[in-house]
Write a structure and sequence with these properties.
The protein is built from eight helices and 16 strands. By secondary structure, the chain is an alpha+beta fold. The strands form six sheets. The protein has a five-stranded mixed sheet, sandwiched between helices. It is elongated, with a radius of gyration of 27 Å.
């Protein structure tokens, strides 16, 4: 049902049930946010999206639904002062020295500070430094001092991955992020999907694969499709100046809607592995030696024909790979059944 509200002095039409933030986004009006993310439920924790409603009330735009006849001011001098004060408080509660942060250049807090003219204090000016934890797990890296308690990671884990590893503990200035009864991520039930890192607006959570291997502004982006299961998740890869894949982010416009499993998130290391074969190998005199594709294929065909003739079709089996496309897997099972004449074929995903 359509209703009308006054937004920054002009009348706009919107749908009942929409939030002020959604209406502002639709109208092209920028409202600063940190805790809000379209993939998780609304929190209203950071207060940066605060707006003036009906001249006298302050409301968080991400949680406040619009009502017919509402008068909304998205920005004025007092709102700017409040937002600057909130940003300063966030900076004083943690270590946000951008020089040594992996998120430098891709940090929403840093971007808002630049937008509102807030100077990020050097590390020596930090008033409240929480316990550091930088060895969280093989895949994920955690810097507790950079956490702004926005709750995005908690909701990403609970609402998207539905694993419920992250949670808050303590109250007031003692509030901090924890993983059930363990403060170390590697000791928890985390499945390393990395969704919490992808939604983190600061450098509190990052990927171990990126650390020390490239600065944010040095990375180039390339989109591809995940090479594992048949869902066809779309991935945005980050590539450092040395041509190495260092990070995989789920693309929002893919069937995965930004989400990835542990294989899609971290299963790309084989691409630059020194053990990766670059040419076919054929065993000669007990040793594998490089050869041409023609020689390799002829050798395989001759041996399969020999085995089938001497021992029958059921003496041959095939094992397919999740790194192959659906079409390649189909062709192999067709070859095994129609050409070799056996049903002995399996796939690694079943294991």
């Amino acid at each position: 049902m359509a209703i009308k509200i006054t937004l920054d002095g002009r009348e706009v039409e919107c749908e009942r049930g929409m939030t002020i933030l959604e209406v502002c986004n639709k109208q092209g009006i920028r409202i600063p946010t940190l805790c809000y993310h379209p993939q998780v439920s609304k929190t209203g924790a950071c207060r940066l999206c605060i707006v003036r409603v009906n001249k006298t009330m302050f409301k968080t735009a991400c949680t406040e639904p619009v009502v017919d006849g509402m008068n909304v001011i998205s920005c004025d001098d007092e709102l700017i002062f409040i937002r600057k004060s909130l940003l300063n408080l966030l900076l004083l509660e943690g270590d946000h020295n951008c020089l040594y942060c992996e998120a430098n250049g891709n940090c929403e807090l840093q971007s808002l500070c630049h937008e509102y003219g807030i100077e990020i204090p050097p590390a020596g000016d930090i008033r409240n430094v929480r316990t550091r934890d930088v060895t969280s797990s093989e895949g994920l890296r955690r810097e507790e001092n950079r956490c702004i308690l926005c709750g995005r990671c908690v909701k990403a884990c609970a609402e998207i991955q539905m694993n419920r590893v992250w949670d808050f503990a303590g109250r007031g200035s003692h509030a901090h992020l924890t993983t059930h009864i363990q403060d170390v991520l590697g000791d928890s039930e985390c499945v390393q999907c990395g969704q919490c890192v992808q939604l983190c607006p600061t450098g509190a959570l990052s990927f171990q694969t990126v650390y020390g291997r490239g600065l944010e502004w040095e990375l180039t982006k390339k989109s591809s499709i995940c090479i594992y299961c048949g869902v066809g998740c779309k991935i945005d890869f980050s590539i450092n100046p040395q041509g190495e894949l260092v990070r995989a982010d789920g693309a929002l416009d893919g069937p995965n809607k930004g989400h990835l499993c542990v294989k899609g998130r971290f299963g790309f290391d084989f691409v630059q592995s020194p053990k990766r074969l670059k040419t076919p190998l054929v065993r000669k005199n007990g040793e594998l030696v490089p050869t041409s594709w023609d020689e390799a294929l002829n050798h395989v065909a001759d041996r399969l024909k020999q085995i089938k003739t001497e021992n029958g079709s059921d003496s041959v089996m095939a094992f397919t790979s999740a790194k192959c496309t659906n079409e390649e897997n189909y062709l192999l099972q067709k070859f095994i059944r129609a050409v070799i004449g056996t049903n002995n074929i399996d796939h690694c995903a079943r294991l």
